[in-house]
Amino acid sequence: MPAKGKHRRPKPQRFTRSIAVAGTGGAALALPLMGATGAHAVTTQSAPQTVSKKAVQSLPVAEKKTAQKSAAENAGVRTYSVRTGDYLSKIADEQHVAGGWHRLYSDNRRAVGDNPSLIHPGLKLTIGRKAATDTTESSPSSASKTSSSAAEATATKASESAPTGFTLPVIGGTIGTGYHVAGSMWSSGYHTGVDFVVPTGTSIKSVGAGTVVSAGWGGAYGNQVVVRLADGYYAQYGHMSQISVSAGQTVAEGQQLGLSGATGNVTGPHLHFEIRTTPDYGSDVDPVAYLRSKGVGVG
User: What predicted TM-score, i.e. pTM, was given to this entire model?
Assistant: First the structure.
């Protein structure tokens, strides 16, 4: 009898399995009792999770877009402090400004001023996005935006087009040592240029439009700049305390090249100015006569 009882025990198990097979058409009957209870528990708990996801996804689209736009605008935006020897095209190249120096000037016109050539060490420039003051002030109406854009375009064109006139290299200076004054202090036996007596820090201007040939230390001339002018002559500026341009840069008439000083072999602050037929020492011509031939009154 015990042996027979052992063979009868598996019947309920087969019955249970048959119920599972028979119930495959209905999801609720396909699970054992314990499984059904678990399924019920999962269903009950999944409801609030679904609502929570929907709540997150249903945040105002406008707010999301505003936040994303703000993040995108601020990404990569930085402030650059102008250093000695900087100029806009140099900064734009080094900082990889899209649109070059024109864009850099447009974005920072309120800080730079009307003349893009006149920037000074310590000036803060915004790189990567238009300065906030410009954006805020140009936002009230489309008319003001159009007016601002037109003004910037005019300023850009003015800075790009190099004037064809000539000017004095410094304003307010008096002539000290003149051209061809003899003396043993000069290797050539005479003064190869003319000295404009001005205090250290006086703005030195390019007498005409041209291209910077060299900018840096010039031995006895101290810090110097040499510019090839549009007519083929070369203008040399010596003893500068600060240089604002670099070789290869195009400059306009009246554009600042740097500041006067007393570097090199000098007895006091002044600008040594030469006009040459080549960029080299010894090819000098009378600078005063040259400027006068261009309609510039000297001394």
Answer: 0.47
